[in-house]
Amino acid sequence: MAETTSQNHKHKWAIIIFTVISIAVLVLCVKYIDLKSLHDKVAEINGWLLFVLMVILPLVGVPVSFLFIAGGVKFGPVWGLVLAAAAILLHLLGSYWIGNSILRKPLTWFFKRVGYPKPQIPEHHAIPICALIALVPGLPYVVKNYMMVLGDVKLGALIIACWPMHFISVTLAVLFGGFSGEMTTGKAIFLVCYLVLIMGLTRVVYRRLRKKSDIDLTKHKPAESGAGTVG
What is the residue extent of each domain of the chain? Predict the structure, then answer.
């Protein structure tokens, strides 16, 4: 019980620190970076090319946040969110295909080498556990997706659990990109409030999912065989 309480406090402080840092970065970007000039340069990129990059590059580890900021710049907030949702679905489909192809063994070896061993995900808990993994702070987007695939999660469970969670996580990046051409104090305040709201909702959902699945994802313990376990 004491250990669980301590982990809850650590998770709470991690969210608070991440929120404060994110707000500070947002404020610095608005104050010291010529967002309008940067916006205009990104807006010159071919739309089809940018969408292809948004789909392909995250499959090889490029951070999605920068790509989705560019998507917000190029396509605006509304279409940027629509295309982000489409790209996330394609990421899940692509990760599933790659993780179950001839690349499965190299991926398993690579993730084990870099400290992300294959998790054991019970099929009857697949959806809440995948949702939890999608919400865990600190894990790279590409690592989350491939970890779940290597954990033998069914495609349907992967999409049901991760599509909405990933989408919620990237909305701020898309909105920031969409607003960057004409960033005002009001828009900046909206983004900060939206960030706080998303972080709060993420914490609530995370805690409820943990109770539902009775799984602790704040740490993973290596099994005797060398494979990682979630729980």
Answer: 2-229
